[in-house]
C-alpha cells in the first residue's frame, strides 16, 4: 500500500505537527469534472527554513479509486494579516495590496481522478511514459518529488489571489489546475522519456518497497545508531542504490532524514518528558554529551540545556 511522505516534513526536512501551527486560511473545493483541490495557509515561524517542494503521488489500484495527486509547499510570500480588511476574517490579499504583513507558507493539494484524465489520452495507440501515467497504465503506484518551476509558482499564487467568484471561479481554477498539471508532467520525465524515475531501478516495485522499509527501520532505531552499510544489509539492497533511491523517493538524504528524526525525538524527550541532557544523550546513543549538544544546536538553533528553560 502506498504511504506518501508528508510534503511539509519534506520541505522542512524534519517532522512537523501541523496541528501546532497557526492556520491563517483554508479552502477545499471540488471542481465539476473530477478535480479536487485544497489549500492551507500557515503563518511562517521566524526561525524556520522551508524549501519550496512539489510531489506527485500516483495511485494505481484494481479494486479502489485510482488517482493522480500533486502536492506543493511554497514559502516566502507575505500577505496582509489585518482582519479589518476582510470583515473580521484574515485578509487574503498580498502585502503589496495592503499594509500589514505576515510571512506565510502555503500547502496545496490537487487530486485528479482517472475519469478526469482519461480524455487527454483518448484515441492514443502508442503511449509515452507520461501518457501511461495519465491513462493509469503505469503498473504500480509511486511517489516522486518534482521541482517547482517559476511557471508553477505563478499558477499557485494566482489560485490564492484572484477576483473571481461562483461559476467564473470554477472556470478560472480549472484552467490553472490544468496548467500546474502540465508543468508537473514536464518535470516528470527526462528528454529521452526513459521512465518515471531518474533512478531507473525504482521502476521496480520491490526496490521501492525495500527503500520504504529502510525508512521504517530508521524510525524504529532512533536510539540505536545504524550505518548505511548495516541498513543496506537489512533491506538487501546495494548501498549506492539505497542512497540514490532514498533521496529520490523522499526528497532528502538518509543522514539528514535520520538526524532530523533523532533531534525531534530529543526535543520531545527534553521538553515534554523533562529528561536531562545526559539521559537523552545516552538514549540516542551519543558517545558524549558535547557531540549531542552540537548536533542538537545545529538542528534547532538551541543548546539542549536552553530548551529546558523555554
Helix content: 40-55%
Q: Which segments are poorly predicted (pLDDT under 50) over 5 or more consecutive residues?
A: 190-194
**Strand percent estimate:** 15-25%
Sketch the topology as an H/E string, one letter per element: HEEEEEHHEHHHHHHHHH
Q: Which structural category do the helix and sheet elements fall into? A: alpha+beta
User: Biggest sheet, strands in spatial order?
Assistant: 1-2-5-4-3-6
Total E-strand runs: 6
The average pLDDT score comes to 78
Question: Can you offer a commentary on this structure?
Answer:
This protein has 310 residues and is an alpha+beta fold. Helix content is 41%, strand content 18%. It has helices spanning 7-12, 114-117, 129-134, 150-160, 166-188, 205-220, 228-235, 239-250, 254-271, 277-283, 289-300, 304-307; strands at 23-31, 35-43, 53-59, 67-79, 102-113, 142-146. Strands 1-2-5-4-3-6 form a six-stranded antiparallel sheet. Strand 1 and strand 2 (35-43) form a beta hairpin. The longest helix is centred in the middle third of the chain and has 23 residues, at 166-188. It is flat, with a radius of gyration of 22 Å.
Amino acid at each position: 500500500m502506498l504511504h506518501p511522505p508528508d510534503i511539509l516534513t519534506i520541505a522542512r526536512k524534519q517532522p512537523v505537527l501541523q496541528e501546532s501551527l497557526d492556520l491563517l486560511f483554508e479552502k477545499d473545493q471540488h471542481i465539476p469534472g473530477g478535480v479536487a483541490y485544497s489549500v492551507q495557509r500557515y503563518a511562517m515561524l521566524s526561525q524556520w527554513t522551508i524549501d519550496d517542494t512539489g510531489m506527485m503521488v500516483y495511485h494505481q489500484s484494481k479494486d479502489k479509486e485510482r488517482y493522480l495527486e500533486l502536492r506543493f509547499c511554497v514559502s516566502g510570500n507575505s500577505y496582509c494579516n489585518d482582519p479589518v480588511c476582510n470583515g473580521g476574517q484574515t485578509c487574503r490579499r498580498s502585502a503589496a495590496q495592503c499594509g500589514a504583513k505576515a510571512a506565510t507558507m502555503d500547502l496545496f493539494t490537487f487530486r485528479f481522478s482517472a475519469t478526469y484524465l482519461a480524455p487527454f489520452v483518448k484515441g492514443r495507440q502508442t503511449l509515452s511514459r507520461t501518457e501511461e501515467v495519465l491513462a493509469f497504465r503505469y503498473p504500480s503506484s509511486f511517489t516522486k518529488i518534482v521541482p517547482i518551476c517559476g511557471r508553477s509558482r505563478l499558477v499557485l499564487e494566482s489560485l490564492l489571489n484572484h477576483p473571481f467568484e461562483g461559476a467564473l471561479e470554477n472556470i478560472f481554477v480549472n484552467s490553472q489546475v490544468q496548467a500546474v498539471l502540465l508543468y508537473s508532467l514536464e518535470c516528470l520525465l527526462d528528454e529521452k522519456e526513459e521512465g518515471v524515475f531518474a533512478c531507473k531501478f525504482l521502476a521496480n516495485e520491490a526496490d521501492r518497497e525495500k527503500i520504504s522499509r529502510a525508512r521504517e527501520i530508521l524510525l524504529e532505531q532512533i536510539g540505536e545508531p545504524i550505518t548505511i552499510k548495516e541498513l543496506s544489509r537489512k533491506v538487501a539492497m546495494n548501498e549506492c542504490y539505497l542512497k540514490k533511491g532514498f533521496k529520490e523517493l523522499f526528497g532528502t538524504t538518509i543522514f539528514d532524514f535520520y538526524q532530523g528524526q533523532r533531534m525531534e525525538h530529543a526535543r520531545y524527550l527534553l521538553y515534554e518528558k523533562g529528561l536531562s541532557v545526559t539521559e537523552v544523550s545516552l538514549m540516542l546513543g551519543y558517545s558524549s554529551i558535547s557531540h549531542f549538544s552540537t548536533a542538537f544546536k545545529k538542528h534547532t538553533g538551541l543548546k539542549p540545556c536552553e530548551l529546558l528553560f523555554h
